[in-house]
Amino acid sequence: MTDHPENRLLRPETLTAIGIVVVAIGFLFPTSELRSISALLPAAMLIGLIVLAVALLMMDQRKASSDAPPVAMTKSPKRVVSAFLLILGYALATDFIGFYISTAIAIPLVAFAFGYRNPLGLAIATLIVVGTIWAIFDFGMSQDFPTGRLWGR
Amino acid sequence: MYSDLLHALPDVLAWTNFAAVIIGVIAGIVVGAMPGLSATMAISVLVPFTFGLEPLVALGLMAGIYNGAMYGGAIPAVLLRIPGTPAAVATTFDGYPMAQKGEGGFALQVAVVSSSIGGIASAFALMLLAPPLSKVTLLFGPSEVFWVAVFGLASIIFLLGGNPVKGLISACFGVFVSVIGSDPIYGNDRFTFGQLEILDGIHIVILLVGLYALPPVIDLLETPLKTGVDNSKLGTEPIWKALPRMKYWKTWLRGSAIGIWIGILPGAGGSMAAFMSYNEARRGSKNPDAWGEGEPEGVAAAEVANNADTASALIPALTLGIPGTAVAAVMLGGLLVHGLQPGPMLFRENPDIVFGFMWQFLFGAILLVLLGGSLATNSFARLLNLPRPLLGSVIIVLMLIGVYSIHGRMFDVYLMLGFGAIGWVMDRLKFPLPPVVLGLILGGFAEENLRLALRIGRGDPMILFQNVTSLVLVALTIAVIVGPSLKKRYIDSRKKA
Question: Following DSSP, what letter does each residue of B3-49 receive, concatenated?
Answer without folding.
Answer: HHHHHHHHHHTSHHHHHHHHHHHHHHHHHHHSTT--HHHHHHHHGGG
